[in-house]
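Exercise 3.2. Students should predict the tertiary structure of the chain below and write it as structure tokens, then compare their answer with the key that follows.

Predict this chain's 3D structure.
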Amino acid sequence: MGSSITLAEATGDEGQTAVVAAAAVVAGATTTGSGNGKDECEPEDLIAEVAQQIVDELGYEGINEKVTEGQWNFIKENGRGLERAQGHVVHQAVADRLAEKYKIKIGKNLVPRFIYIRSIGPDYWDLLKEVYVELTTPGQVAGHKAKKDKGPRYGTCRYATYNLPKK
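Answer key:
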């Protein structure tokens, strides 16, 4: 596990509520950009860029090497779940890289710009632009937008996409 901030590991809207609470804590605080020249870029573009870089660096085998033993056991027992396990690997690696690469100043503290929310709902909260971003593959965007029963934020969040490597 890297240096990313995982704000919530909850189900339902609990994780989203935690993000709103965290945003309230910093509300009114002075935030400044990261100083890396990319603060005006849209968060979904930054996240998509980082995700594709990671996928390209790791490749198919490299991603699979990071799938946990428990995930492999589930895949073997159920005959499904590989893409989901690969997605978890990518999401965590993206969260770690975002935390290293993009920071903002809140008061006198430099903190990660993006908060990774490992729960039901959009994956990342951007403290600078105050928006949710869901990271997924292009073919899954419509399915995520249809998940409004799992939280209304899927219909209003922004989407960042990446392409998994071929075998």
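Discussion points: The first helix runs from residue 14 to 26. Residues 6-161 form one domain.
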